[in-house]
Amino acid sequence: MLRSILSRFARRRARVSRAVLVAAVGATVLGAAACGGSDDPEPSLPSALLTADRLPADFTVVPMMVNDLIVSNRNTLEQSKTVAFTPAECAPTADAEFNPQLTEDNSALLVAQSDNGTFSELLSSVRRDVDADRRSTTGPCAVVTAVPSRGTLAGARIVTTTVELPALRDPAVEQAFLIRNDSVTTLSGGEVRARTGLMANVLVRRADGEVVTLQVGLSTAERPVTEEERAAVVPGSPLVAAPVSDDDFVRLVRDAVARVAD
User: Is the whole model's pTM more than 0.85, yes or no?
Assistant: First the structure.
């Protein structure tokens, strides 16, 4: 869920801090235990979330309910209808199929915040179309421009550049797609703002054979940037430094996979 052009649109329009995590939100987690065939109960999805001591330094878990995610997702999908994407074929599609299926009974969430970033983790028994995520953010879709036509961002030009991170290989991983996306928003009044996000969508096979969707997201707050900052940035590097390095993010996702697969 976390962290696309649409999530920023939803946050700015709603002006509600609890909408920050559209891809995945929640520390007060709700979820159903997996139904196994043995006499021993299978571990629940909430128990497979990362523990606080495994989060990046300076991040503190904050309470949020699964229903917050569901409501935020619903609003974001509705608002997406007012956004024009270029290239047009790069409009995201995975969320439209995945998000409406999330419920308090099939998902577990975790959110943490620091002074300069937000972390989120989502586990769900709903299978995500990871190939659709890849199609909308790589190749000709590695650089996408979005222009909302309604709300406080109407007329803004949002350019998001996506870089795929090293592949995550693990016997429990059926499919994985890790990215860094760097977004620059030029408001109608001329102000330029930027943010950087790290996102992982992973299909993980648990010990009982069930495949669950794991989403891990880590993003900065959006902040103003100057022309000098934009001119000085090295091509391919983020304009705004992420809370952790790309390598540290990959290790964080690997830790999350290990807990889910255990």
Answer: no
